[in-house]
Amino acid sequence: MKPLTFTLLRMLSDGNYHSGTALGQALNISRASISNALSDLDRYGLTIHRVHGRGYRWLNPVQWLDRDQIRGYLAEDASAIEIEVAEIVESTNSLLLQRAIDQGASGSRFKQVLAAELQTQGRGRRGRIWSSGLGDSLTFSVLWPSQRAVNALSGLSLAVGVAIVRALASLGMQNILLKWPNDVLFEHSKLAGVLIELHGDMLSPGTVIIGIGLNFKLSDTTKDQIEQKITDIASIARHMPDRNQLLAVLLKELIKMLNIFELHGFEPFVKEWEHYHAYQNKAVQISFPDGTVKNGIAVGIAPDGALQVNTSAGIVQLRSGEISLRGLTQETSAKHQ
Ligand code: BTN
């Protein structure tokens, strides 16, 4: 999507008609350039109506992310993190990871967040694609220069799940559950996912990139791209939260969690994680990376974040692989989200 398209979309964000002449005059460009920049946007899930004699109207305008508003909602926490909002990037995780690699040890020792209105190559866990459309999700990554050695970060992705549930609960959203290791679910449908990537040596402090994709108000185009059961904030919130406020509340909970994790690791979050666990004490099927499967009962979580499953061969500590609830068709083979 071109910068001109973003400029025009911002001008159309009020949902009113704007004539091609007025838009052209404001930007000092031809009506043909406008028509060109606003064509073919339905592939992003955007509906622009063009009515002869009236002009252009954006039928489903998004609420744009705004750095100042996010900082305002963060209040006293605004000084704890640098905030950057991008219009379009391939992947916020890839960009921050590259930044961490380029900057090396001399890089910023300050937490940073990069949020994007549109990701063109969003990545999920296990090589999957993370699908989202312009402004229909929150897609952001936090760069955290951790004091902990890379090998002392186990369980972090689960703690991120706890922070997300806390944030949503503080905005009145109940019954949000977690699926090991870090899917966020509502009634068995995926609401958010977490992708953690690390840069550094196993034994020394490293940089952590925490990527979060949260379905906000998915367009039909985005929904059609996703191969598993999904939901979004618009479907579950009684009062639709402001998108900037939602991001700020998530960041507040992430900062709080990271400060505790930095000192104590995952242990302080174990009980709460189990409380939110969608499959606690339920019959599950474990799918191992080598393709084998095992059945058992998910009995809990270890302080290092391993899922404990009681099988016929005793307790199995699961550190990689996927689990699904027995009897429920799950997304283990899905390639998207
Ligand atoms: C998953 O459930 O598979 C994890 C999804 C993580 C998606 C987020 S969106 C922001 C960040 N940038 C990416 O490319 N991926 C993560």
List the keywords.
BirA Bifunctional Protein, domain 2, binds biotin, single chain, SH3 type barrels, 3 domains, Arc Repressor Mutant, subunit A, 337 residues, alpha+beta, five-stranded antiparallel beta sheet
Question: Strand order within the widest sheet?
Answer: 3-4-5-9-8-7-6
Total helices: the number is 10
CATH A-level architecture of the largest domain:
2-Layer Sandwich
Computed CA radius of gyration, to the nearest angstrom: 21 Å
- Helicity range: 25-40%
Structural class: alpha+beta
Q: So what's the overall shape?
A: globular
Q: Would you count the extended β strands for me?
A: 14
Measure the end-to-end span: 22 Å
The CATH topology of the largest domain is: BirA Bifunctional Protein, domain 2
What amount of the residues lies in strands?
Answer: 25-35%
Order of helices and strands: HHHEEHEHEEHEEEEHHHHEEEEE
Question: How many separate domains make up the residues?
Answer: 3
Bound heterogens, unique: biotin
- Average per-residue pLDDT, rounded, comes to 92
Largest sheet: 7 strands, mixed
